[in-house]
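Illustration: JDVT-CTERM system glutamic-type intramembrane protease.
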Amino acid sequence: MLGDPRFRAALAAGPLFWLLLLAAGFSPARPEWALERPGLFLSLALLYPVAEEVLFRGLLQEALARRLPTVPRGPLSSANLATSAAFSALHFPGHPPLWAAGVFLPSLLFGYFKDRYGRLSAPITLHATYNSGYYLLLFQPP
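Result:
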């Protein structure tokens, strides 16, 4: 994975996005909250990404890949597009609408690397990396 320049670019996209958000005026969080509430941080940064990737990329995307026609859509499969739409839709109840809709683009990356490698290690790595930075830099726990 790390030898793949596309994967390295996808990893670098997370920190670049966080910096852009901070430059755009988003208020930084208190990163020390993760040390004060390690169980919550580990759930958000690691447990949720693993569970979501197993469910969405491991089960749903795999099932859709067997059922949907393989119509060329550039580097994105029909199964990835449908899975990413479902992934984004299921974020609406717990997130502001703009953030929930914004989950669609990283989801496409997760699905792309699932298709590219045929295993879940790449999407889990990306998802956990993206969540870790977001929750450390921009999230204020209740």
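Reading the tokens back as a structure: The two ends are 36 Å apart (CA to CA).
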